[in-house]
Amino acid sequence: MTTSAAVETPEKVRTPAETVSGLRQPTAQERSEERALLIAVLLDLSLALPYSAAAIAIGSLSMLSEVLRGTLLLIVALVSLQTLRNLHRGRVAAYEYGIGKLERGLGLLIGALLIMAAGFIAFHALTRGGGEPKSEFWAWAAIVMVVYNFFVNVGPIIPLWKATRAGGSVIVQAQLRAHIAKAIASFPVVVCVVIDALSSNPDIARMADSIGGTVGAAVMTLIGAGMIRSALPDLLDKALSEPVQMKVNRTLATFFHEYDALLGMRTRRSGNTAYVEITVGFEPERSMADVSDVLARMEAHLRAEIPDVDAVLIARAHS
Fold this sequence. Notes:
The protein is of the alpha+beta class. Helix content is 65%, strand content 12%.
């Protein structure tokens, strides 16, 4: 005797009102996530060319490092936006268990790119710096660009944060952390580029440029390492955290007298979804209706305890 029951995650639920031409229509929350990420991408694109031109003209290591980091993260942001759109429209039917690992993988990629950019910055900060002669026009152009860049990095933080308050996609959460990292790292760049651009002393200009690069590298390394650390457990199928595991145990305890044996349990987390597989034993003489009723109520209890749960309950004969 074997039966199973599965609790669908919200992203798998389909109703006629939500489906057009076989595709799921995004909810208001999902559209806000897409809008927040799109704003961040458009702001970055608006700055790319003028900022790069000013960075090359002034020869600032701090600015050139931001060009490198910004370009890499912009590519990831574009991929993230397209992935998010596919996810919200149900274009992931080939992935039976969702794309939580892909979401975490993108977060891991963002973290890795931050650390790579940090290594590049740190190396050049220790071996060279700014301080090259520069025209007054490009000096002021560089100052305008770094100030504008700071506000471009800060601007998307609020809409991204609002989009993650209700849980939100792991992709959006990763982009929020990335923009916080960029905002924090770009502030010392503003200070150091102003000193570098306006100082008539090459040694002071070079020192300011090196300090700006070093501080930015340290901030990116810390945040990038944190993003990698948060992504690895899901990618390696780590079991649920203890508080969530306790909620699963609570369900088992609640129905302890309604099944005859606990034969096995496996749990893991992928993205925002908790996957739970429970195998329970029932005496062979119990009816299918009785067993199905117990499984259905256990399933409902799990969903109430853990909203983002994908549960599979398996019943086996046990004597």
